[in-house]
Amino acid sequence: MERKIENFEEWNEEMAIKYNPDHYHHSPNLIVRFTEFMRARAILKFLSPAEGDYVLDVGCGAGNMLQKIKKGRLYGVDLSETLLELARARLRENGAILFRGNVECLSEIIRGQKFNKIFCSEVLEHVENPGKVIDEMIKLATADGRIVISIPNEPVINFLKSILIKLRIFDLLFKGLSKKMDEEWHLHNMDMGIFRRMVKGKLRILKIKKVPYIFLPIRYVFLCAVE
Fold first, then answer.
1. Residue closest to 125 by CA, chosen among 67, 178, 165, 163
2. pTM
3. Could you check whether the bond before residue 212 is cis, i.e. omega within 30 degrees of 0?
């Protein structure tokens, strides 16, 4: 699946408001909130931020992940002004530097700065050219840098959702959530095989974490290094 959007910036803003990440990180639904917690924990473990690190959040959204990082010099980039306003308020105390722009143009947005820790969480499926985002992260990574990327495992998620819909309990458990991953905000399908093909010859996958559990991989978190 690959969808084309006539005015990407306008569409992205609309989707960012409708699917504000705050709604997931702080969801009243325990299943959603637990999955987000496990994803964030896996990202932070792979990222392992330390004093002196330069850390970049690619598609930082409302700043939920940057808020959890207590060490290093923090940077974030996002296209949505609505989400950046939330991020600025959330990150006022931790000194994060935020930029507005399309993450397909990272090297133009952030000039003259390299990062030894870069992460991109649940973003690639929403952009027009995910391969270009990976290329841009590589441009900004130091030679020994680490890049952490998380994606949804869409075949498993859609399968689980279809079962709940057939049992007529989806709306009871997940009212307000999309019934299919490519229903609206996802421009590209994502799974393990697609990601491996996308990074082949660009990134070396060092470790993989299945979230929340190895037997229930709703999300994948990858620790990568530049080839």
1. 178
2. 0.94
3. yes
**15-49 per-position pLDDT tens digit:** 999 888 988 898 888 999 999 999 999 999 999 99
- Could you tell me if 222 and 202 are in contact, meaning their C-beta atoms sit under 8 angstroms apart? no
> 18-53 burial string, b = 16+ CB within 10 Å, else e?
ebbbeebbebeeeebeebbebbbebbbebbebeeeb
| Tens of pLDDT, residues 108-151 | 999 999 999 999 999 999 999 999 999 999 999 999 999 999 99
Q: What gap in Å lies between CA 34 and CA 27, rounded to an integer?
A: 9
Residue 7 tokens read as 């005015």
Cα dihedral: 223, 225, 226, 227 (round 10) = -110
With residue 199 as reference, give the H or E element that holds it: helix 192-199
Phi, psi values for residue 64, rounded to 5°: -60, -40
- Quote the strand ranges of 127-169, DSSP E: 141-152
Query: How many CB atoms within 10 Å of residue 109?
Result: 16
